[in-house]
# Entry
Amino acid sequence: MQHPTMPFEVGEPLSRPTLYHIPVCPFSQRLEILLELKGLRHTVDFKVVDITRPRPAYILALTGGATALPVMRTSRGALRESLVLLDYLDATRGRPIARQDPYQRAVETMLLGLVDALTAAGYRLVMNQDASRRGELTETLLEAYRAIEAFLAAHSPDGTFLFDRFGLAECAYTPIFQRFWFLDYYEGFALRQEEFPRVSRWRDACLAHPAAQQVGYEEIVKVYYDYARGYGNGALPPGRTVSSFAFDPPWQERPMPPRDKYRDGADDAELGLCRPRAEAVPVRVSPAGRRASR
Ligand code: GAZ
# Structure
């Protein structure tokens, strides 16, 4: 019998694991990149969870009450933490991407150990609403980049990737480099090539890699507008009714948001987030038309 709140049978054997994630999630994208590199994307069932609603009961049952995603349901139990999942999928599917030489594996793991500080610094800067703190938060971000610059300069001075090809560390960092397009747009933050030659080369190669093209600049900038206003995880800024994370209207149909995040926020209409009314004829309304009809 299927439990009414669960879209699967309890104890049912799984032909493939299910990965529950939030839309445009950098953490689940790490796994998509890994699987794409191996040509094995079809071996995991990716399911998007609506970020703007309370977590469904079946997710809470899986995690034991924790709400942070992604979580992967396997036939043997639930697994969490994207870097753990990255290792697990790498070890259980096809030829491993992780370095097999123990010394190289240790170097790779050390670089992976620097990713959380970079991520946190970038998210803190994009979410900051106090213009007087920009300098200090930018400095913390630069510190995180300096640690990576020094690491790559020490362990792979002449390379592009950490080793000879896009590997496990690159799977973990590339979605973060892509999210940081929001820093380019909303903070005017650019990594100076002269100060960061090694990490710049690495990042550019990561961004250009064919296995990592799940998201692009425009999508990140539009979808993360609410983050730039200080509201993460689908939370709504005051005066708004639709999250910038919404699927409908699709980001491709919305205008680029205002860049200046320290001024008054844009409303649903300016962001192209007004859904055409249900009773209206399903004719596409131009953004200007939507604004006029409010
Ligand atoms: N360490 C976990 C992993 O899997 O690697 C991280 C998972 C995670 O943070 N999940 C978030 C979540 O589900 C969504 S992504 N949160 C909802 C909840 O109920 O717990 C990152 C930040 C940040 C703000 C947001 C995020 C982010 O800093 O991307 O810093 C790193 C959340 C203010």
Observations:
- The pocket of GAZ is lined by residues 22, 25-27, 67-70, 81-82, 119-120, 123-124, 127, 232-233 (CB under 6 Å).
- Strands lie at 18-21, 45-48, 71-74, 77-80.
